[in-house]
Specification:
alpha+beta; binds adenosine-5'-diphosphate; rod-shaped; 616 residues
Length: 616
């Protein structure tokens, strides 16, 4: 128990230590990451003036004169497009009266004339009206030609929209309403290329208008990267901040804004009436995180930059849980929450798991060993105790066995000694009692000696061809002499008279049979009949001794063949015995290459069968 407890304590400590190591590692990594990101941000602050912002970022400088975006081609639109000369309006007032009040075609020559003017603003105004009039009067071809001419006029705006862009959109529009699909496709495709290449610097409404038209005409949304949209929208935001609350803005700052569903990091500095801002995309931040990893040669870790609410801005999705260190903006002065998870964590957990498994296995082995050892000890002790008890029983049983005939001998001898005038019959009966008891003692001693020899493997067996039937018949006849006077009959099966050749030690086999017969008598209870048979069976010659006595309970059927073991009933009923008989019989029959079998029914008698190999 103590061992197991100690083991668990050790494991617990190991776990705590590993967790502490991991947390320290995270702390070190986090500090390094924060320092590196701070450096990158400091470098980025140079982009507010001077250095050109790299890919993934944009500079927007707002001042009283408007907003400048650099590099210009990185934005899709600008909040304040450069001012352009508007197409002329006033010179057409009279002609427009004709155009709208009719007859419209009377306005045409006036427009035509001005369309050849050397002044672009005038030319643009005239071409626009010319095209419009042709269109209204269903002269599509002429209208197209006028718009195409207008498309060649540069640097002039019509209601803020570059005249050439307006003209090319009008061409597409015309072709669309005329159902001239192929021409429309060509026209729209070339317009889309120029549009995407940033030929026109537009504000967001005009850009969105043109983008929507083009998507419709080309039949697919324009391949505009979301990043560029986000940068342009960020520039819009800088402009509106500048316009709406330039004076309340802190002199400098760092913040994450959400534009076009992309979290853009914004750095700014106010310098008098100028606001310089840099918009930084997540892609660039990813580069910074990688740079931080390169600068820091320490243990592997995973970094995520998130908003305060936990939305990922850059890096790898932060794992939640105990293995992550989160540094909020307040601690780092960075515009993001930095989450650091040590990558070595997995290896650590693996190591820990291995150590845990080894320790558990070790503990289990020790516990098993202890349990096994105790069990073995308990068994040995139990067996030793049982043997000791058996031996004690044996000694007392042997003493008893000796005492009975000895007492008898002593008694009869005294009688003979005391009385010289005994009638001859009495004297004879005394002598025969002396003889029987002496024989009993002899057999007892013989048995003990035999057993001693057998135990030490010194008992010689003189095996020679013998007739098992004959041996059985002789043993029965002799036994009858002993048991007959006590009222027992031993019935030999007539078949037993036949000859059954076996290899046997006559004396030993007789001894074995005698033991079985003796037991049959001892454990016969009320019954006084014993049956002996000699039969040939498939695997040998079987000599069976059957009684109708106490029987052997099934739990004892194996045990009783071991030395010193006596049946419960035998002991209870005080039937004399040493527990050696059956052990001796087993030994003898095994020395003959045979075996002993027992069939019994508790209370219904037993049959002990010696099975000997057939000779030849
Ligand atoms: P012992 O007879 O001296 O006790 P054995 O080795 O001859 O020793 O027999 C062992 C035990 O087997 C006996 O104590 C008895 O319980 C049981 N036993 C032997 N023969 C018989 C039998 N014929 N009927 C019933 N029980 C028997």
């Amino acid at each position: 128990m103590t061992l197991v407890w100690l083991g668990w304590k050790l494991l617990d400590q190991d776990r705590a230590l590993a967790a502490q190591r991991a947390s320290e590692r995270r702390q070190v990594s986090a500090e390094a990451v924060v320092a590196s990101l701070d450096r990158s941000l400091a470098e980025a602050e140079h982009w507010l003036s001077g250095d050109e912002p790299p890919e993934g970022s944009l500079r927007a400088t707002a001042s009283a004169t408007g907003l400048r975006v650099e590099p210009a081609n990185r934005a899709l639109w600008v909040p304040v497009p450069p001012a352009a000369l508007e197409a002329a309006d006033a010179p057409f007032a009279e002609a427009e009266l004709l155009e709208f009040r009719g007859p419209a075609d009377h306005a045409l020559p006036i427009y035509e004339k001005m369309a050849h003017s050397g002044e672009p603003a005038l030319r643009a105004g005239a071409l626009l009206r010319l095209a419009r009039t042709y269109r209204r009067t269903a002269h599509t071809g002429e209208a197209l030609a006028a718009y195409r001419a207008l498309a060649n006029v540069r640097g002039i705006a019509i209601n803020g929209m570059p005249a050439d862009l307006l003209a090319r959109r009008a061409v597409c529009d015309l072709l669309e309403s005329a159902g001239r699909k192929q021409e429309l496709g060509r026209e729209a495709a070339s317009l889309a290329v120029d549009f995407a290449n940033g030929r026109w610097v537009l504000d967001r409404p005009n850009w969105t208008l043109a983008e929507g038209d083009l998507a419709r005409w080309t039949g697919a949304p324009l391949p505009i990267p979301a990043d560029r949209k986000a940068l342009s929208a960020a520039a819009d935001r800088v402009w509106s901040e500048f316009r709406d609350r330039a004076n309340s803005l802190p002199a400098s700052g760092r913040r994450v804004i959400d534009v076009e569903q992309i979290p853009v990091t914004l750095l700014w500095r106010r310098d008098g009436q100028t606001l310089g801002a840099a918009a930084i995309l997540p892609s660039l931040l990813n580069g910074w995180i990688q740079a931080a990893a390169k600068r820091n040669a320490g243990p592997a870790y995973r970094v995520a930059l998130t908003t305060e609410s936990g939305r990922l801005i850059a890096g790898r999705e932060p794992a939640s849980g105990a293995g992550v260190l989160k540094l909020p903006t307040a601690d780092t002065r960075l515009p993001w929450t930095v989450a650091v998870a040590s990558d070595g964590g997995a290896a650590d957990t693996r190591d820990l798991a291995v150590r845990e498994r080894l320790l558990s296995l070790g503990l289990a082995a020790i516990v098993l060993l202890l349990a096994g050892g105790s069990w073995w000890l308990w068994r040995v002790m139990r067996r030793e105790l049982a043997v000791a008890r058996l031996q004690a029983d044996f000694v007392s049983a042997v003493s008893h066995e000796f005492r009975t005939p000895l007492t008898s001998l002593q008694h009869v001898t005294e009688l003979l000694d005391e009385d010289d005038d005994l009638p001859p019959e009495r004297r004879k009966s005394f002598y025969s009692s002396l003889g029987r008891n002496t024989e009993r003692l002899r057999r007892l001693v013989e048995s003990l000696l035999d057993f001693g020899r057998m135990e030490s493997g010194r008992k010689p067996y003189d095996l020679r061809p013998e007739d098992a039937g004959g041996i059985a018949a002789q043993a029965v006849a002799e036994f009858q002499k002993d048991a007959g006077p006590r009222g027992f009959t031993v019935d030999l099966d007539p078949d037993g008279a036949r000859e059954f050749q076996v290899r046997a030690d006559r004396l030993a086999l007789t001894h074995a049979l005698w033991n079985l017969l003796d037991n049959a008598v001892k454990y016969s209870a009320e019954s006084h009949s014993i049956w002996v048979s000699v039969r040939r069976q498939a695997d040998g010659i079987a000599i069976a001794v059957r009684d109708a006595g106490l029987g052997v309970p099934s739990r004892e059927r194996k045990e009783i063949f071991r030395k010193f073991v006596r049946g419960e009933k035998a002991k209870q009923l005080g039937i004399k015995g040493t527990g050696l008989g059956l052990a001796l019989v087993s030994h003898i029959v095994e020395a003959h290459g045979g075996r002993i079998e027992l069939e019994s029914e508790e209370g219904g008698g037993s049959t002990f069968k010696l099975v000997l190999p057939i000779l030849g």
